[in-house]
Amino acid sequence: MTVERDQWDVEILDDLFEQREHDLIMHIPLNVDVVNDVWFWQHENSGSYSVKSCYQWLQVLKGRWSADMELNLWRSLWKTKVPPKVIHFSWKAITGCLPNRTQLYTKHVPVQLDCVCCNSEEESIYHVLVSCNFARSVWNLSSVPASVIVATDFGTWVEQILNRGQAVVFEGALMVSWVIWKARNELLWNKNVTTVAEVINTAKTVLNQWKTTSSNRFSPLSAVINNTSNNSTNWTAPAAGFLKVNVDGAVFAASDCYGLGGLARDANGHLIEAFCLHKAGCVQPSLVEAIGVKEALSWIKKKGWEHVILETDSLVVVQALQNCLFVGSNVPDAINNDVMADLAILS
């Protein structure tokens, strides 16, 4: 750290650490106050333990998906405009929870391992949905370029389709996979054979019908966005005798640093004073906003101003201050404690 102990000494870090350790250290924001160490759950941005983050961490340890896959694939999957039952099916298939014969056999269920559709290879999730002769015939007739994708498991296969950047193709892949599984079950339990054309037609029909009946499902979001863009909030002056301090922060990831700034204006809108800070480190935007509020409070206290309105554009920080906690937010609890302490002193 520097002599002032308010930021990392970049030159020393460059001399002592490899790039990976250097980047990890730079991601740690420093506190000028001396505080006791606290327990912090590293897999949750808030520092608090959650079942969701633990589950995701365990899946990464087991090799079922990577951190990047978790961020990209799952977020895209939950937002895909297909029936919820198809999303649930896809989640089970990607995580290896689909009850195929190989999966049942590993659970000590006495079943044959041969694929229900081709009877020539072991029935894994990837085989029955992608590489089986029946599945290949289906994909060749569909709009999904399955033949050019090389993968060994269904999760990687789906992720590669997602990376091609075509939402329609991604939706089609999920729908066709779901119908292939239904055709497999129909053959297994009812001895009914489904043709390749029937699989494609069923996938298209179900998706079109669902989109028609739920056409208004996603409209509120666009309405909110349009309404927000058409009614931008302008700055409003404080009451007579008050000052309004606006604070904001920005992250400059390319140069591993972030900046903070604030300005104070009176009831007439005249600029009274301003401040700005530049610190080394690449931290999350919500954390920068929280640090900005803390620095603004310290600045106000040093100036001796009493009647002050502090304004920030970070909804996460505002809600956290109003509720006196950052539960479920992206701001670490340690930062929250500092902000709340300064707020208590100021008030």
What does this structure look like?
The protein folds into 2 domains: 60-220, no CATH class; 243-346, Nucleotidyltransferase, domain 5 (2-Layer Sandwich). 51% of the residues lie in helices and 10% in strands. It has 15 helices and 4 strands. A hairpin with a 5-residue loop joins strand 2 and strand 3. The longest helix has 24 residues, at 167-190. The chain starts with 9 loop residues before the first helix and ends with a helix. InterPro entries: RNase_H-like_dom_plant, RNase_H-like_EbsB-rel, RNaseH-like_sf, RNaseH_domain, RNaseH_sf, RVT-Znf. One of its GO terms (molecular function) is RNA-DNA hybrid ribonuclease activity. Residues 49-139 form the Reverse transcriptase zinc-binding domain. Residues 246-323 form the RNase H type-1 domain.
What descriptors fit this protein?
347 residues, Nucleotidyltransferase, domain 5, RNA-DNA hybrid ribonuclease activity
